[in-house]
Amino acid sequence: MLRLVSGRTGMGMNEHERLQLLVLARESIRMRLLDAHELTPTREEFPDDKFWQDQGVFVTLTEHGELRGCIGTIMPVSPLVQAVASNALSAAFSDPRFEPVEETEFADLHIEVSLLSVPAELAFSSLADLQSKLAATRPGVILRRGVYQATFLPQVWEELPNVHGFLEALCHKAGLHTESLSQPGLSVFTYTVEAFSEDCE
């Protein structure tokens, strides 16, 4: 059985609509495992216009409490339902950090969907100022310097509550030295999410 576990920063989805998106993510993975046709969301299933608005989306998979895959699109480049379906498949089968999900794992997967606000650039005058602003609101964060870029969803603050450790890990993910945080040319963007997950009983 699927039920809503948690949500953050409401962006207009009611509980039923959130559950629809979680079912869509799970069914997309299930259909691929069965070697069936790729699931294509329809207007009949998702009649509300909000499902067809372009939306930044991440899909996170865990298995027995451990990360199993996380893939998403930061910017709103495709309709919400299409982004959920495609990112669910990518998280399950194309995350380069993990082997593709196998059929024997399917029942143990726990799915979380995160709907992103459009990122906004954060102005800061120093590393201390940056740390202070991020620690106060704990948003999703994008670091960008030249061709190097990485993001952490707001949920990562739960694992890395110290702002210094958070930024250090994000630099590492982006392929940047931590010294980059104090050097010119670094851009920081922040965003909020509406995050909701399933519980399989």
Automatic annotation (TrEMBL):
UniProt superkingdom: Bacteria
PROSITE patterns from the UniProt entry: AMMECR1
Gene3D superfamilies named in the record: Hypothetical protein ph0010, domain 1, Hypothetical protein ph0010, domain 2
Domain AMMECR1, residue spans: 16-201
Protein name listed in UniProt: AmmeMemoRadiSam system protein A
Organism name: Candidatus Cryosericum hinesii
Origin organism lineage: Bacteria, Pseudomonadati, Caldisericota/Cryosericota group, Candidatus Cryosericota, Candidatus Cryosericia
Gene label: amrA
